[in-house]
Write a structure and sequence with these properties.
The structure holds 2 protein chains of 2 kinds. By secondary structure, chain A is mostly helical. Chain A contains 11 helices and no strands. Classes of the chains: A mainly alpha, B mainly alpha.
Chain lengths: 271, 314
């Protein structure tokens, strides 16, 4: 994958974004919460590279800090989805029979909802708090992880090395976690980047609708929404927030595509 | 084939049952009493109890679910305490707007995706293909709401060509209606086209690598005949499934676009209801949307079975 320029570009950009989020206090030129009512809604200038918002706060700084909200939600949501999804997938495929049917039917039920709508429903029920957004997006992403795990395990279940492990007295949990799971990691890794990108999009949508990150915490979705009202005065506010989302999603997708190409067994042996 | 279709239709029943269970229980988790919210905090304790009994909220949960399900099947989705209107009639009012937006967006997306996808596949490796793929990736990663904002900025605020928000019913004034629809449809349609194009291209490439295509070329058929007559049909069949699946994402993205353009569809209704804590409406809207999605997937599966001769004659 190191030779795949697009994927490497994606990786570099994503890592840069993560570093930016972690070291926001040092990277951002201004305090994102500092209000300067005299300087509100300014166009980009030498002092404020992306201009200012309706309260005179520096847009660039708010975008840098906004990365925290999006990346935090994305990583925790994916963490929840991966953990729960992998557990469900492992259980379903390992135990088979009625356990498998039950789990797959519940997943089918979840998949029957458009993801944003399901996340909306859960957020409505639980309240517009950040953790609930992470939970909602996590729940919405579970089926993908479960299905991939289940598919991989089903094809591995009857192979010889699994039989050998079972014959030497391995317990169920050992077999599931130490033998079967490590062999499913490639497609799961790809799914992590895909789900992460999707999670960021859904989080921005939820925040846009007022249900995700609450003000005054800076978040890209929130800035996109607020900036909309001031489009005739300064477009940079809204557009740059959207560009940040776009860039993050793009880098994750490039990374995911690269991982998929690199880990595809059909393509192995070529590089 | 009828067996296959019949089985597929029957599968909808357990899925819808699950959907209804999920919808019902998600909304029962809401902390706080819906009745107290509707009647106000200072309401008399006794009148709250009366209201609860009237709405059946004092009965055990599973009984409430069965009653709700029974009503839903008969088209009664409850009553909106805020709007003082049955939920079903509220939803029916907003449905035409959503259908107009969805329909036009899908048509636009197909109109772009099919020719460009084919072009991209047959000119594989050339700069045309690279450009198409780059545009598709960009379209795929671009949030619809950002595209909407950019379109508003360029075409409404700066050029003044189209209105930045608003809706006119098609039945009232088709021309005006379409004028208001341009920006929302572009927001959704363009990004949908990107997704479809990606799939169409890879699907067509798979088909073009097949032996029967090579045979067709060997038989001396002109290239465009091979593509249009043989490859296209085989590409379009799995494509219908993808289009149907994407409609699910469409419905989600549509909620935000409806909000941006103040387009009074079901998504817009859902957001209003959430802000007004009108849970009956949210519940009804979610149920209807999920049901619609399930139904569209069913149609796609049936169409797939019908179109693919290998399944048709089994």
């Amino acid at each position: 994958m190191l030779r795949d320029r697009a994927a490497m570009a994606g990786l570099v950009v994503f890592l840069a974004l993560v570093s930016m989020a972690i070291f926001a206090e040092w990277v951002a030129p201004y305090d994102p919460a500092a209000v300067h009512m005299r300087d509100r809604l300014q166009e980009p200038s030498a002092a404020h590279w992306l201009g200012t918002d309706e309260l005179g706060r520096d847009v660039l700084s708010r975008i840098i800090f906004g990365a925290r909200a999006s990346l935090a939600v994305g990583s925790i949501a994916v963490g929840i989805a991966a953990t729960a999804g992998i557990m469900l997938g492992l259980s379903a495929s390992y135990y088979g029979g009625p356990v498998d049917s039950l789990i797959m039917r519940i997943l089918d039920g979840l998949l029957a909802f458009p993801s944003v709508i399901l996340a909306l429903a859960i957020m409505t029920a639980l309240g517009p708090y950040l953790f609930n957004a992470m939970l909602a997006i996590g729940i919405v992403s579970i089926p993908a992880f479960a299905r991939i795990t289940r598919g991989s395990v089903l094809s591995l279940k009857e192979t010889e090395f699994v039989e050998a492990a079972r014959a030497s007295g391995a317990t169920d949990s050992y077999l599931m976690l130490r033998v079967l799971l490590p062999n499913c990691l490639s497609p799961l890794l790809v799914q992590v980047s895909v789900s992460f990108a999707a999670a960021i999009l859904v989080e921005a949508a939820l925040t846009f609708l007022g249900l995700g990150v609450q003000p005054p915490t800076p978040s890209w979705g929130g800035m996109l929404d607020t900036g909309r009202k001031y489009l005739d005065q300064t477009a940079w506010y809204s557009v740059s927030a959207g560009a940040a989302i776009f860039l993050t999603v793009l880098s994750l997708n490039l990374l995911g595509d690269g991982l998929r190409d690199a880990l595809d067994p059909r393509l192995q042996g070529r590089s | 084939m009828t067996n296959h279709i019949a089985r597929r239709v029957l599968l909808v029943v357990p899925v819808m049952l699950l959907v209804s269970l999920i919808v019902f229980f998600v909304f029962r988790v809401i902390p706080g009493d819906a009745v107290v919210v509707a009647m106000g905090e200072g309401a008399n304790k006794e009148s709250i109890e009366v209201m609860r009994r009237q709405l059946g909220l004092d009965r055990p949960l599973y009984v409430q679910y069965l009653v709700w399900l029974g009503n839903a099947l008969r088209g009664d989705l409850g009553f909106s305490l805020i709007n003082r209107q049955p939920v079903s009639s509220l939803i029916l009012e907003k449905l035409p707007a959503t259908l107009l937006l969805t329909g036009l967006s899908v048509l636009l997306a197909l109109a772009i995706a099919v020719p460009v996808g084919i072009l991209s596949a047959i000119s594989r490796g050339t700069w045309v293909d690279q450009l198409m793929r780059a545009l598709t990736l960009a379209g795929f990663c671009m949030p619809r709401y950002w595209l909407a904002v950019v379109l508003i900025l360029v075409l409404a605020v700066h050029a003044g060509l189209f209105p930045a928000a608003g809706y006119v019913a098609f039945s009232e004034n088709p021309a005006e209606s379409l004028h208001y629809a341009v920006l929302p449809v572009l927001s959704i349609g363009l990004s949908l086209a990107a997704v479809q194009m990606r799939f169409l291209r890879s699907s067509m490439l798979d088909v073009l690598a097949q032996d029967y295509i090579r045979t067709a070329h060997a038989k001396g058929l002109k290239p465009w005949v091979v593509v249009m007559g043989h490859a296209l049909k085989n590409t379009l069949i799995p494509f219908t499934t993808v289009v149907a699946l994407e409609l699910g994402n469409l419905m989600g993205g549509q909620v935000v676009v409806e909000q941006i353009f103040s387009w009074p569809g079901i998504g817009w209704l859902m957001i209003q209801a959430i802000n007004q804590r009108d849970y009956a409406v949210v519940q009804g809207a979610v149920l209807v949307t999920a049901a619609g999605f399930v139904f569209i997937n069913l149609l796609a599966d049936v169409a797939y079975a019908w179109l693919d001769p290998r399944i048709r004659y089994v």
